[in-house]
Amino acid sequence: MQLFTRLCLLLCSLFLLCASQTHAQATTASIKGTISSDKNTPLAGVTVAAIHLPTGIRRTAASDSSGGFAIDALLVGGPYTLQVAQPGFRPVLVTNVFLVAGKEAAFTFTLSTEVVAVGTRRSDRTALESAVPIDIIDMRTLSATVPQTDMTQILQYAVPSFNSTRQTSAGGSDHVDPASLRGLGTDQMLVLVNGKRRHTTALINLFGNRGVGNVGTDLNTIAANAVDRVEILRDGAAAQYGSDAIAGVMNINLKADNKGGNVLVGTGVTTQGDGLTVLASVNKGFKLGPKGFLNLTLDADHRGSTTRDYSRDLASRPVFSFDRAEEEAALAASGKTYADFEQRNGDARIDNYRGIFNALVAATDKVRLYSFGGYNYRRGNAAAPWVLPATQSFDIIESIFPYGYQPNINTRIHDASAAVGAVIGLGPWSLDVSNIAGYNQMRYNVSNTLNASIGPSSPTTFEAGGFQFLQNVANATISRLFPKVLAGTNVAFGAEYRNDRYQIVEADQTSWGEFDAGEIGAEGGSQGFLGFAPASAVTGNRSNIGGFIDIEADVTKKWSVSTALRFENYSDFGSAFIYKVTSRFQVVKPLAVRGAFNTGFRAPSLQQVLYRQLSLESTASGVRYSGIFNNQDEVTQAAGIPALGPEKSLSFSGGLVLTPLPNFSFTADAYRIDINDRIILSGLFGPGINQNLDAALFRYSIDRAQFFTNSLDTRTMGLDLVASYQHELGRGSFTATAAANFNRTTIQGLNVPANFQSLETDDNPNTNYIDPRQLSLIETGNPKSKILLNLGYELGKFSGVVRNTYFGKVEYYDTQTDPTNDFGSYFLSFAPRTVTDLLIGYKPTKSLSLTAGVNNVLNVFPNTVSEAARNGRPPGGFATEELFNAYYQGRFGKPSNLPENRDIFPYNPVQMGFNGTFVYLKAVYSLGL
Question: What are the TonB-dependent receptor plug domain coordinates in residue numbering (predicted)?
Fold first, then answer.
């Protein structure tokens, strides 16, 4: 009986176990599949994540050596999202997956190699396989989630070797953000779109502290929502792409989707209530035939102006008088306070309207036609310093502005580009022919100002002229991969013809002319911005033709080498021959070493060759005229300034690529870039150099002149570090990326014409042929280090990211406009700063994603100008600020006004701007899901 009882219990247990297994099979499901590359090679170690959207439960698996994977015991139903990711390959995302109880859902994934189009002419190179360092920035994710809306600011917080800071009170640079790479000049980074040369702006940066004397590319003319990714080649590449690529190359890849799209909206504001931003953007893909596409993007954005910590100092910028009693009495009599004379000193107000297209059509099996381009219209509004009775009483007309006025510098910018081309299969060879045209126009309008020499009938708005630049590039490239030569050899060669045209457009006479209706002593021209006079108007053209050959060979499966040779001839200064050699060796599977050696050149921009303008300098003691004169001007020739030639470079780089785990990679690259005959703006020179220059200055009725000149030899050395890691943590996914750039530029030599040798060695720094401020901006005007640390976690419908950006020290000489000051200016030192951003994402449905966040959550500001002066050095070699101030008081009988404009412009836009904390919200609705 006891045995019978035990047998019954055993049978019952077996029945219950079988029932439970049957129930589990009926209430769970599984996913299996295989993963291979686009070369039909099984991929091991690929991460596959299945996310159950209703609960946020995340299950993961890794593929085995045959590429197979399986995820069991999944909840029935859905929807699920499948994420397939592997470094070096483009990720795959599958949405709207539903699972059936007791059944396996089978998938076959083919991952496309995440090849790069910059730095190589092979079609199968990945970033980690490249012999030179390349950053790949996913703009699809960043444009939809980060606080910034324009390209320069998005990249500022994503790439450590890239720097761009919005300028203030810097003329046209308030409206076009200058950008640089590896601490070099704005014009030493070449920009491509879809692998084709992008035109530069018509603007030369003449003021501020970024890119002074340089001409750059306006990245903000391209809508971020139109971009798939940005590739940044951190190595000289002039031999591959021509002039301007001394520091590196940025290639902007436009979206090429033939379906779907998105609607992106965003808004944000600073915690001080200004700087409102609004963005609305639509992207949509369309099919063009069975293998073609048309991708369109339309967007508009608004950015409000900002002002921070304005005040007025009697020694610097008083309203009525430098005497305190007189100042207070005049303010009381006028019924005004300093609040009525607030100086706008932050971001300019900007409105952008953009349209971008990218298209491809397969005309035949061997012919693909492509086209891309876009248009950007921008309105900008910035403020010049106030015109006030204390310093410019003659330039105030009481019947119009009785107590002074703050001129507004307004711009209208039109930027357009279009490319057409074809890729033609010629047997095993491929021919790519294209023509790219680009146009940039900038016009100035000055408002809330007057021309005091006209008198009471003066208008208060002036059309001040501007400039425009047109570039056309025609090229042809033939390439072929020889798979059986060594372990694979790619040969490419081609030619390019480029034509540039630059024009300075004359302004209305009222904006530059001097009339007799005003008071004696009244200055001619519109205050705040002097219009372009007929003497400044100029039109010029330049053409160049070049040819290149580019060979990349895999000597073995572990060792690759490449070389590029290029010859170019310019119509205005002659020819250049340059070359580049690179190599990469896979030491062991997780470790590769790489290096490059190249020569390069940068042709002087047509803007630098032709630019000329007279301007009014506002100083604490009034205004004075100065002028920039080009190589053809009488003043330049009288001064003995040589004609501009090209900059020449020699650079080395070496590094390693470490991939010990499928989810971890690390790269380190050191570099040295030597540049000879670097083009800068000279110092400002008055009478006394020689009789011919004195006579020329008198004929132009100006006080000082300056010129573009090949005057500098520099050496830049640096180190780039990049690491990324991804790990499944709990029910979610954790990612960490760290990247850093360390760089140092030193002056190796000065090239000074004989007429100016004595000025370079005298005791007056304000008459140096090479301006000390320019030298300091080149040597220490960019952060010496920049470090990024981003931490992210994704769990179901939620995600969070913490971004930290460390900006290193920045140092340079302050401006100096006082003609009585012969001892120089403060050397300003801005201490390092760290900016922290917080991003929180939520995806309520498969089509809608929301991101809320804070930029600069800790409300970090750079040093004020006054703090930077105390961190740095006072003028004239004085040991302390107190000693210098005592000397100044004794010599001039008044308190020092240095550093200049410390009250109305208390901050300089050095490392990261000075708007403080910014809160924002972005929403993206995906079309076609």
Answer: 129-249
Residue tagged 């070096």 (tokens): 88
The residue with tokens 């081609």 is 494
Q: Where in the chain is the domain with CATH 2.40.170.20?
A: 134-310+345-625+638-927
Please check the confidence at residue 822 and state whether its pLDDT lies above 90.
no
Residue pair 167/177 in contact (Cβ under 8 Å)? The answer is: yes
Question: What is the per-residue pLDDT across 224-283, written as a single tens digit (0 to 9) for each?
Answer: 999 998 989 899 999 999 999 999 999 999 999 888 999 999 999 999 999 999 999 999
Residues 238, 184: Cα–Cα separation, whole Å:
15
Tally the residues of the chain.
929
Nearest alpha-carbon partner for 576 in 565, 587, 584: 565
* pTM tops 0.85, yes or no: yes
The burial class, CB within 10 Å (0-12 / 13-18 / 19+), for 13 is: exposed
Beta carbons of 203 and 220 less than 8 angstroms apart = no
Residues of CATH 2.60.40.10 domain(s) within the chain? 23-111
Residue 556 CB neighbour total at 10 angstroms = 12
Identify the helix (H) or strand (E) that includes residue 281: strand 277-288
CATH of 134-310+345-625+638-927, one of 3.90.470.20, 3.90.76.10, 3.40.190.10, 2.40.170.20: 2.40.170.20
CA distance 270 to 854: 9
Residue 758's nearest CA partner among 640, 678, 645 is 640
* Range in 533-547, 607-621, 633-647, 661-675 the model is least confident about: 607-621
List the one residue out of 169, 150, 572 whose CA is nearest residue 350.
150
Residue 654 is inside which H or E element, if any? strand 647-661
Q: For residues 373 and 358, give the distance between their C-alpha atoms in angstroms, rounded to a whole number.
A: 7
> What is the spatial distance between Cα 684 and Cα 768, in angstroms, rounded to a whole number?
8
Say which residues have a Cβ less than 8 Å from residue 146's Cβ, sequence separation at least 6: 154, 157, 158, 803, 837, 839, 853
Taking Cα atoms as reference points, which of 790, 788, 775, 779 lies closest to residue 743?
779
Within 8 A by CB and 6+ apart from 758, the residues are none
Please tell me the CATH code under which domain 23-111 is placed: 2.60.40.10
Whether residue 437 contacts residue 382, with contact meaning beta carbons closer than 8 Å, is answered with no
